[in-house]
Design brief:
Blueprint: E1 8-14, H1 19-29, E2 35-42, H2 48-55, E3 60-62, H3 71-82, E4 89-92, E5 109-113, H4 128-137, E6 141-148, E7 158-165, H5 172-195, E8 199-202, E9 205-208
Parallel strand pairs: 1-2, 1-4, 2-3, 4-5
Antiparallel strand pairs: 5-6, 6-7, 8-9
Helix pairs in contact: 4-5
Length: 213
């Protein structure tokens, strides 16, 4: 890690337990991720991810989509909140609501999906539903995908993918646990590459430069 670089400023959006957030916190603590989490936004007041953030002194906000008349109003509130913080990169970490990403944040938002996009992805496929679909289909390989997010579900250019075998005796829980171990490597890797200026987006392709800009 290039210690001469200033920490990248992250914002994390979540809706649930915050295991991906905890991974970021742990990687920052052990020095393998040179980042600072500025704020955590949750779409649910009861999300345990909020408690994880508060345990580490990270500011939190709850923005419930139910309180807004439509996706535009909900998204505008998210934008308004983000604009109060220094933001280099927004990390979606199990955020279960549709955020209409404004132009000023396009190319600065990442998401992780627990399958190999373009397989087993899209609206309605998230969390354990993904692993159930993988097993039901009889796939032999699964994994995770970190990609730039745009305004279509699981659509933006792919940054990093990591694979795992699907075993004959897998359950959704066992497959999810194996995939999550790879998520814990893939997402910090993608953030580091972004922070180092090494990601070059060319259409649907993300080229990884050998050195940063």
């Amino acid at each position: 890690m290039d210690m001469a670089r200033a920490p990248i400023n992250l914002v994390v959006l979540l809706s649930g337990g915050g295991t991906t957030l905890q991974n970021f916190i742990d990687r920052i603590a052990d020095g393998s991720l040179n980042a600072r989490i500025q704020v955590v936004l949750s779409s649910r007041a009861d999300a345990f991810g909020l408690q994880r953030a508060q345990n580490h002194g990270i500011p939190t906000h709850v923005i419930s989509s139910r309180k807004y008349k439509d996706a535009d109003a909900f998204s505008a509130k998210i934008d308004e909140t983000l604009d109060k913080y220094p933001v280099d990169l927004v990390c979606l970490a199990g955020f279960m609501c549709y955020w209409k990403i404004p132009d000023r944040y396009l190319g600065k938002v990442m998401n992780i999906h627990p399958a190999l996009i373009p397989a087993f992805c899209g609206k309605g496929l998230y969390g354990h539903l993904v692993h159930e679909a993988v097993l039901r289909y009889g796939a032999k390989i699964s994994g995770c995908t970190v990609h730039f997010a745009d305004n279509e579900y699981d659509h933006g250019p792919i940054i990093v993918q990591r694979t795992v075998p699907v075993l004959d005796d897998d359950t959704p829980d066992s497959l999810a646990a194996r995939v999550f171990k790879e998520e814990c490597k893939a997402y910090p890797e993608a953030i580091r590459l972004f922070a180092e200026g090494r990601l070059k987006v060319e259409g649907r392709n993300v080229r990884i430069a050998t050195s940063g800009s």
